[in-house]
Specification:
Layout lengths: L6 E2 L2 E10 L2 E9 L8 E2 L1 E4 L6 H13 L6 E12 L4 E12 L11 E7 L1 H7 L3 H14 L15
Parallel strand pairs: 1-7, 2-7
Antiparallel strand pairs: 2-3, 2-5, 3-4, 3-8, 6-7
């Protein structure tokens, strides 16, 4: 009998975008205090009991950056990666948010700094190939073209 590897879905991934005068920028956060210490990443976090994935995206944005999102979309894709310590495949639904350039970022203890970067720079800063693949998807479907209104999520918890 062959062994099965479980597929787990317990977290979300959120890319926050802003259209500055210089063009589209992606918000990246520098992790602190966990196994990803010092790594640049998008907003991510665990889904809590009785919470939907889109509600998690809104909550994590508020907790990690102080942002109250009003334009949240399903990216219509998932990040996936293998976790050796769990011998499991993790799948995380991806969301995209648009914010105004006047927005203020207030980091929590999980991050030491943030940057608004071009997609090219984000490609260089992100650690994992899956993140870069998802970033390319986001660029194609959320900045190079407009997302379908059917992908828009509610904006209140």
């Amino acid at each position: 009998m062959s062994k099965e590897i479980p597929i787990r879905c317990f977290s979300i991934s959120l890319f926050v975008l802003c259209n500055f005068a210089a063009g589209w920028r992606v918000l990246l956060l520098k992790r602190s205090g966990n196994m990803l210490n010092g790594q640049w990443c998008q907003i991510a976090g665990g889904i809590e009991h009785a919470e939907t994935a889109w509600q998690t995206a809104l909550r994590e944005a508020r907790e990690e950056t102080g942002l109250q999102l009003s334009e949240l979309y399903s990216a219509d894709c998932c990040e996936q990666f293998y976790e050796a310590h769990r011998d499991a495949i993790t799948v995380a639904p991806v969301f995209v948010a648009y914010v105004d350039e006047a927005c203020e970022i207030t980091l929590n203890h999980e991050h030491s700094e943030y940057r608004w970067v071009s997609f090219a720079d984000a490609h260089e800063l992100l650690t994992f190939p899956g993140q870069r693949k998802t970033l390319d998807w986001v660029k194609t479907h959320f900045t190079d073209s407009s997302p379908s209104p059917l992908l828009k999520m509610p904006s209140t918890l």
